[in-house]
Design goal:
13 strands; homodimer; Group_II_Decarboxylase (chains A, B); PyrdxlP-dep_de-COase (chains A, B); four-stranded antiparallel sheet; 492 residues; globular; Aspartate Aminotransferase, domain 2; 37% helix; decarboxylase (chains A, B); alpha/beta
Chain lengths: 492, 492
C-alpha cells in the first residue's frame, strides 16, 4: 500500500500530440457536427401548428426560425503552452501573459460599454473586496450548518438570505435557501423540490418560460405540460385551466415567471392560484416555483405588480444575483420553505453537513459580493434604481416608436422588445438577445439615457441603409408582440 | 401595456418585520427541524448488515455513525441593514463594512493556515487577475459557440479544455466539454450524458463514490446499484461482476473513481472494463464516467497509475479546478465525446448558442484562473508538485505510524487516512474531514513538512491527554482501513 512511487512526466508525448493536433486541425469539423440542420425553437416547439394565428398577422418566415449560431471560437482560443526551461529567467512568458491579459481587459471594457441585450447590471465597484481573491472560499453543503472546512463565508450568505426572506415575507425559522451559481440552478432546485414533494406531479410552465425549466423536466424525467401565452408573454390562464382539468388526478407543479426572459412578462400569480383553486386543486395538491430571475428583485418596488410573497401558497422563489444587483460572476438566490427541504436532504458525514443544494461545493465569494451591494444600497437604493430603469425603458420605447420602429414594453418591465435588426454585426455590437423576428434591450441601472441615445441614433442610421430599397422591408412582428405594437408596412 | 408606473417602497414594512424576527428568533428551532435523529452514512447505507465482517475486526460503534453536524450559523450571521439617510455623509456604514471585511480577512488567513482536511490547494497568487474583477464575465451556454453576450472568456476556456483534452488523449474535433462550477457539476453532467445515451441503463457506483453520484441517481430517476469496495476503498470488481450479471439485459453506466473522497482510492479502470467485457457487455452497451475530482490531474504524472485516457472506452472525465490547481472559487473541467453530446443538447435561440451544460450562465472568471495557472506551471510544474505531495504524504504516514497511530496511504494517493481525533475542537481547528472512526489529511502543494510537523506535534500532545486514562482507548479502525493499518490495542 505504501512504498516509494515512481513518477514520470507526460509532457514529451503531449508536446508531440499538440503539434499534430495543431497541424491537422480543421475548424469546420468542430462546428458542423453538433449543429442540427433545421432547428425548432426550444421553448416554442412547433409554434405555427399549435397556435391559432391572428387574422392578418404574418407568420414568422421559416428562415427567421433557424438559429443563427455564434462564431466557433475553437480556432481563436488562447492555447496554453508548456513553459520553456529558461522562462523564469527571461520573463518572456510572463510578458506574454501580461500582454494577453491587457488586451483582453481592453476588449472587456469595449464590450461592457456596448452592452444592452442581457439583463446584467454591469455597473459595480467591488474594489474593497479585491483583497479576498487570495482565498479559496467554499461554502460547501448547507449554508446554515458549518462544515469542517473553515475558509467559508456562511455568515455573509445567511445575512443575504435573511434579507431576501424579509423581502419575500417568510420568517427566519420557516425558510431554507442558499446562494446558487445562477438563475438556472435556482430553477433546477425549485422544480426538484416540487418533484420531491409530489413525485407524480405534472410540471406546468408557459411556453415563454426560461429554457432551464424544460431542461429540468427532461433531467428529472417529469411530465411537462406547456401552457400557451398571451401576446404580452404572460401565461394564458384559460389554457392553463383546460390543461389542469385534463390532469385533475395528478398534483400540479407550476413554474410562474416573474419576468419572462424575452418579453419581461410577469405571470399573474394570483390568477394562477385562483385557477388552481377553481379547478379543485387544494393547497396540498400543488407546488408553485416562482422564477424571479430578474424581476424578482424589481417587483417589490413596483406598486401595481402582483406581490411575490410566501404569505401566498408558493413553494419557492429564485432570483439571479448578477442581474439587477450586479456581480462579477453569475450567482443567484433560492428560497424555499423549510418543511419542503427535508424531503430533499440527506446527511453526508464527509462534510459534517446536510446537503440539500444542487452543487455541493459552492462559490464563497458570490455571497460577499451580494452582501456588500445589499448593505450599501439597501431597499431604498434598489427602489431608486428600479424607478430609473423603468423611466429609461419608457424613454427607449417612446423614441423607437417615434422613429417608426415597432416596439413593446410590458407594464411591469424594463425590457423593451422591438424589431430584430437586420444586420448580424449590429446585433453583435450591441449584444442584443434575439428570438424569431424580435430583439430586446433590457434597461438595467448601467444603461443611461446617453447610452440609449447612441444606440438609437445608430439604429436609425443603419435602418435607413438596410431599408433604402423598397423591396427590403422591416420584419412584421405582430405575431410576436401584437398588431398594435407592430410598425410594418401592413400594420403601421 | 405602457403608461406611467407607480412605485412604492417596501422598506417601512420590512424594517418592522426585521425587528420582530430578531426578537423572537429561536436558533434551535432552525437546527432541530431539518435534522433526522438517527442518520445512516449517505454513501454507505446500512453497512454492517450488507458487508461480511472481517474476523477480529471491531464494528464501528453506533455512536460513531451518528453525524456530528457543524454549528448553526443563523444566529451569528452578518445581518444586512438599511443604510441611514446620512450614511454617505458620515461614512459610518462604510467604516463598519470595512471593519467587518478586515476582521473577516484575518479570520480567512488563520483558517487558511490551519487547513489540512480538504483537497484544496490554497497556495496561489492571482494578483495579475485582480483587474478583471470589475467585469461581469459570463460564458453562458456552449464554450465553443459565441453567444451574443460579449463579456465572456471563451478564448481562455477553450484553451483550458484543449489542455485537458491533450492530457486525456482525445482529439480536438472529437471532444466537447466545459468549465463547471465544481466537481459535483462534472459528475452530474457525466451521469446525465450516460443516461441520455442509455435511457434504461443502470448506474453502478462503488459505495465509496462521492455523494454527488447518488444525488445524480436520485435526481435523474435512475436505478442505482451500489458495488462493494475493498479495504483500500477501490471498487470490488468481483462484486461488480455479480451485480452486472444480475442485470445483463440492461446497459451499464459506471462511475469510476479516480481517487475516492475519503481514502483517495483509485478504481482499477482496466479491470472495470475487463469485467464489463467478460460479462458480455460490448462497447455499445456501457458508458463509463471517470470522477477524477482530485487525482484526475495527479495520476497522469504517476507511472504505476492506471491511465485515464479516451483511447480506452470511456465516455467522460471530470476533474475539479479548485483542488490540485487551486482557485479562489470552486470550479471544474468536464470532457466528454462529441458524439455523446448531441443527445443532450438543444438549440436555444435566446443565447444564439446550443446549451448542453447543466448551468446555462457560467462563471467566466474561473477559466481565466485555470488558464493562468496551467500556463505558468505547465505539465512539468504539475509533475513536480505531484512528486512533492506524494513525498510529504509518505512523511506524514510514516510519522503517524512512528507515533503509534494507525494510518493508511494508498499507493497512488496523497490522502493519509488515520484514526479520528477524539476532540471536535481539534478536528475543527485543522479542518479535518471525518467519516465513522477515520479522519484524513490530503497533502496538497501548500501542505509543507513544517505544517505537518506542527500538526503532528499537536496531535501527539493532545492524544497523551485524551488517552491518559486506561479505559479511554483510541478507536479501532480495522473495519475502515484494515487490521494491518490499525494500531488499536487489539491490532497493534
Amino acid at each position: 500500500m505504501a512504498g516509494p512511487v515512481e513518477i514520470e512526466t507526460a509532457s514529451p508525448n503531449v508536446k508531440e500530440k499538440m503539434e499534430i493536433l495543431t497541424d491537422n486541425f480543421d475548424p469546420p469539423a468542430v462546428v458542423v457536427e453538433p449543429l442540427l440542420p433545421v432547428v425548432t425553437v426550444a421553448n416554442g416547439g412547433p409554434r405555427e401548428s399549435e397556435e391559432e394565428e391572428e387574422e392578418g398577422v404574418e407568420k414568422p418566415t421559416k428562415k427567421s426560425k433557424e438559429i443563427e449560431l455564434g462564431r466557433n471560437v475553437h480556432s481563436t482560443c488562447l492555447a496554453i503552452t508548456e513553459p520553456e526551461t529558461n522562462d523564469e529567467f527571461t520573463g518572456d512568458k510572463e510578458a506574454y501573459m501580461a500582454a494577453v491579459l491587457a488586451r483582453y481587459r481592453r476588449n472587456l471594457m469595449e464590450r461592457t460599454k456596448h452592452h444592452l441585450g442581457y439583463p446584467y447590471n454591469l455597473d459595480f465597484d467591488y474594489g474593497a473586496l479585491a483583497q479576498l481573491q487570495h482565498f479559496s472560499i467554499n461554502n460547501l453543503g448547507d449554508p446554515f450548518i458549518e462544515s469542517n472546512y473553515g475558509v467559508h463565508s456562511r455568515q455573509f450568505e445567511v445575512g443575504v438570505l435573511d434579507w431576501f426572506a424579509r423581502l419575500w415575507e417568510i420568517e427566519k425559522n420557516e425558510f431554507w435557501g442558499y446562494i446558487t451559481n445562477c438563475g438556472t440552478e435556482g430553477n433546477l432546485h425549485g422544480i426538484l423540490v416540487g418533484r420531491e414533494v409530489f413525485p407524480d406531479g405534472i410540471l406546468y410552465a408557459s411556453r415563454e418560460s426560461h429554457y432551464s425549466i424544460f431542461k429540468a423536466a427532461r433531467m428529472y424525467r417529469m411530465v411537462c405540460v406547456k401552457v400557451h401565452t398571451l401576446v404580452s408573454g404572460e401565461i394564458d390562464c384559460s389554457d392553463f385551466r383546460v390543461k389542469l382539468l385534463d390532469n385533475k388526478d395528478k398534483p400540479a407543479i407550476i413554474n410562474v415567471n416573474i419576468g419572462t426572459t424575452v418579453k419581461g412578462a410577469v405571470d399573474d400569480l394570483d390568477l394562477v392560484i385562483q385557477t388552481l383553486e377553481k379547478c379543485g386543486f387544494s393547497h396540498d395538491k400543488f407546488y408553485i416555483h416562482c422564477d424571479g430571475a430578474l424581476f424578482g428583485l424589481m417587483m417589490p418596488f413596483i406598486k401595481r405588480a402582483p406581490k411575490v410573497t410566501f404569505k401566498k401558497p408558493i413553494g419557492s422563489v429564485s432570483v439571479s444575483g448578477h442581474k439587477f444587483v450586479g456581480c462579477p460572476m453569475p450567482c443567484g438566490v433560492q428560497i424555499t420553505r423549510m418543511e419542503h427541504i427535508n424531503v430533499l436532504s440527506s446527511n453526508v458525514e464527509y462534510l459534517a453537513s446536510k446537503d440539500a443544494t444542487i452543487m455541493g461545493s459552492r462559490n464563497g465569494h458570490a455571497p460577499i459580493f451580494l452582501w456588500y451591494t445589499l448593505n450599501k444600497k439597501g431597499y431604498k437604493g434598489f427602489q431608486k434604481e428600479v424607478q430609473k430603469c423603468l423611466r429609461n425603458a419608457h424613454y427607449l420605447k417612446d423614441r423607437l416608436r417615434g422613429a417608426g420602429i415597432g416596439a413593446m414594453l410590458n407594464e411591469l418591465s424594463s425590457t423593451v422588445v422591438f424589431e430584430r435588426p437586420q444586420d448580424v454585426e449590429f446585433v453583435r455590437r450591441w449584444q442584443l438577445a434575439c428570438e424569431r423576428n424580435i430583439a430586446h434591450v433590457v434597461v438595467m441601472p448601467n444603461v443611461t439615457i446617453e447610452k440609449l441615445d447612441v444606440f438609437l441614433n445608430e439604429l436609425v442610421e443603419k435602418r435607413s441603409i438596410w431599408y433604402q430599397e423598397e423591396h427590403v422591408q422591416p420584419p412584421c412582428i405582430a405575431a410576436d408582440i401584437g398588431k398594435e405594437n407592430c410598425a410594418c408596412s401592413l400594420h403601421k
